[in-house]
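no rush on this but wanted to send it before i forget. theres a chain ive been looking at and ive put its sequence and its fold in C-alpha cell form underneath. please have a look and point out which stretches look like helix strand or loop to you. thanks a lot i owe you, the record is right below:
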Amino acid sequence: MAQDGSLVLVCQSSGFSRPRAGVLRYSAKLSLLPTRAAQVEGLRQGLDAARAADTPVRLIIQTPGVAGASSRIHIREDLVGSVAEFDGDAYSVDFVRLAPAEPEPAAPSRRKR
C-alpha cells in the first residue's frame, strides 16, 4: 500500500490485454504466484480492500530479462487502475491513463499606457 492509501501492484509484462480502447487490463491468479504464502495473503487482502473501497491501484510493470540480463522495472505514474474482478484467486485490474492536469490560467497582463 502506498502512503496515499492506494494499492501498488507489480505486474508481469506478459499478463496484459486490451479489452477496449483506452483500457489496459492485467489478469493473474494468486495461486500461480511464485512467492511466499504471507505475501500472497497480503495481496489477497489488498485486492479485497481495493475492490470494496474502490481504492486506486498504482502500476509497476516488471519485464523479465533475457539472456542473463536482469529484469526491468517500469513505474507507470500515468496510469491508475481499479479492481475489475476478484474471486479470491483470479483477479483483473483495469488501468486507464490519468487525465492531464489542467494548466493554471495565465494572470492578466498589465500594460502601461
Notes: The beta strands are 7-12, 16-17, 24-29, 57-63, 72-86, 90-97. The two ends are 57 Å apart (CA to CA). The chain has one domain: 7-69+76-96. The mean pLDDT is 89.
